């Protein structure tokens, strides 16, 4: 097995594992009992998408994909902060239970 074949096999296995993680996080979004679970699963989906983009960068050799991964990370961070603020405002408006 040549190094190129090993790299191709490793990236293929990584894509399968990332697809499984994406499927499981989708299930968590659908059946998540709380809003916080859904936000966490959405954050995980962002990280998995970054993994897909990084794996695509390795497979193709185009480093432009890494810029896309950085933009996804920034977008995921901002979305998580916004959703956390929404959850906090929702809890404070309902009052203590």
TrEMBL record:
<keyword id="KW-0813">Transport</keyword>
<dbReference type="GO" id="GO:0015385">
    <property type="term" value="F:sodium:proton antiporter activity"/>
</dbReference>
<protein>
    <submittedName>
        <fullName>Cation:proton antiporter</fullName>
    </submittedName>
</protein>
<keyword id="KW-0050">Antiport</keyword>
<comment type="similarity">
    <text>Belongs to the CPA3 antiporters (TC 2.A.63) subunit F family.</text>
</comment>
<keyword id="KW-1003">Cell membrane</keyword>
<dbReference type="GO" id="GO:0005886">
    <property type="term" value="C:plasma membrane"/>
</dbReference>
<keyword id="KW-1133">Transmembrane helix</keyword>
<keyword id="KW-0812">Transmembrane</keyword>
<feature type="transmembrane region" description="Helical">
    <location>
        <begin position="39"/>
        <end position="58"/>
    </location>
</feature>
<keyword id="KW-0472">Membrane</keyword>
<feature type="transmembrane region" description="Helical">
    <location>
        <begin position="64"/>
        <end position="88"/>
    </location>
</feature>
<keyword id="KW-0406">Ion transport</keyword>
<dbReference type="InterPro" id="IPR007208">
    <property type="entry name" value="MrpF/PhaF-like"/>
</dbReference>
<feature type="transmembrane region" description="Helical">
    <location>
        <begin position="6"/>
        <end position="27"/>
    </location>
</feature>
<dbReference type="Pfam" id="PF04066">
    <property type="entry name" value="MrpF_PhaF"/>
</dbReference>
């Amino acid at each position: 097995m040549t190094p190129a074949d090993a790299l191709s096999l490793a990236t293929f296995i990584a894509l399968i594992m990332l697809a499984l993680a994406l499927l499981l996080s989708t299930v968590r979004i659908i059946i998540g009992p709380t809003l916080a679970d859904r936000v966490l699963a959405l954050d995980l989906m962002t990280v998995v998408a970054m993994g897909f983009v990084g794996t695509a960068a390795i497979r193709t050799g185009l480093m432009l994909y890494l810029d896309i991964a950085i933009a996804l990370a920034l977008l995921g961070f901002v979305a998580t902060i916004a959703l956390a603020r929404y959850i906090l405002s929702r809890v404070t408006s309902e009052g203590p239970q």
